[in-house]
Amino acid sequence: MPDPHPPVPSPSPLPPPVPTDDDTRAQHRVDFNPAVHGFAFPNAFVDELITLPNGTTITTAGRCGGMSYAALDYFVSGRPVPRWSADLYAPDRVPPDENWLAKYVHDRQLQSFLTGSATKFLTWTLHSDDETWVFKGVSRWTKEEEVPRVVASVDAGRPVVLGLVVARSLAKVGDNHQVVAYGYDVDRATGRVALQVYDPNSPGREVVFTSEPGQKDWSASNGRRWRGFFVQDYTPKPPRVLTRTAPSRDRQVSTGDVVKLSHVWTGRSLHSHGLAWTHAGTSGQQQVTAFDGSDDNDLWRLAAPHGNAAAVGDGHALRHGDVLRLRHVETGRNLHSHRGFPSPLTGQQEVTAFGRDGVGDGGDDWRVEVDGGGRWRAGSRVRLVHVATGVALHSHRRSDPQLTAGQQEVTGFTGRDGNDWWTVLEVR
């Protein structure tokens, strides 16, 4: 499998379709790779879609449309899709609803249902597979109208979102599905058609949809069968980009590295800036927050613990249990905490940036706790535990325009929960 984290180039024109000598077979694909341009977590979201007049609640088994639309947004813009993996979000395997990426996917899911083409999820569900005196039926609609649309779009270098239909009643319409098609193989002599797709239910691998001669429905290589499909309307949306240089998940994290750390549960970056805390009981030291954006105030240099720089220099491969300091690159101050000073909003232990140009104290030391133990890799989720007081570096969806510069509060938390997890967003 190729490295899933390289910078993504802008889509470029590909060679024309490749016919055989007798021109009965054509193959073509856009340069879309599910292992690079798809999300690394599975489609394990659950949403309530609508409640029918009889009280029946229709749910969607995930946010497949949102994941498909979002993946295309990143691909079309030439920017890397966030490659956060399922194990970061254990046990649920997907970003929680507090995370900006989950919200983005949710918004794109809703937008996929508001397109004109989305009405086919309902109308095709109620139609027969076979033609009638009035209608072609789902099978002929798919093969005679929708397959040529896929072929034309792929030939033009554009992947398409497909609406897949399996339901036969409105109560089951949530069983329908959405994927991205980026390639085809059509044998006009036999009638065999195969499409290459990114299916959010199968992250990281290509799925092939096939209809053999005489076969009305479509079989998928990941084990599903579908009555048919239609091309969905799609308008690109500029996606949020927090880094253009995401590291490989297996990249070893070491002292001397300059990193951006992302709060797993909300996706915001550990951040500081030249403002002091001014809340009641404040220490008056420099604020540390979680930022809903990306700039150089998110950069932290990983250094040896206080008083131990000579013994532990740059290049030390960090492991579970190691102690280190995080020095804010822009201001030179160390990530710090201390007893006796409450955080501005929740009253938990205050976290600051303290000292200057290497000057500090033991309140700057943090112990790395790698989930599962072992080496700290860029794809790991970690806790940073304050050595002097035992609190965990923590954040949550609390902000205040006055006290936290409108950014998310970061605290030292005496308990332990999912809001203590951080992961590496970028390494320089």
Automatic annotation (TrEMBL):
Keywords carried by this UniProt record: Repeat, Signal
Chain spans, region Disordered: 1-25
One Pfam family it belongs to: MIR
Signal peptide residue numbers: none
Compositional bias segments (type: Pro residues): 1-19
All copies of domain MIR, residue ranges: 250-305, 315-371, 373-427
PANTHER family associated with the record: GH21273P, STROMAL CELL-DERIVED FACTOR 2-LIKE PROTEIN
Protein name: MIR domain-containing protein
Species of origin: Cellulomonas algicola
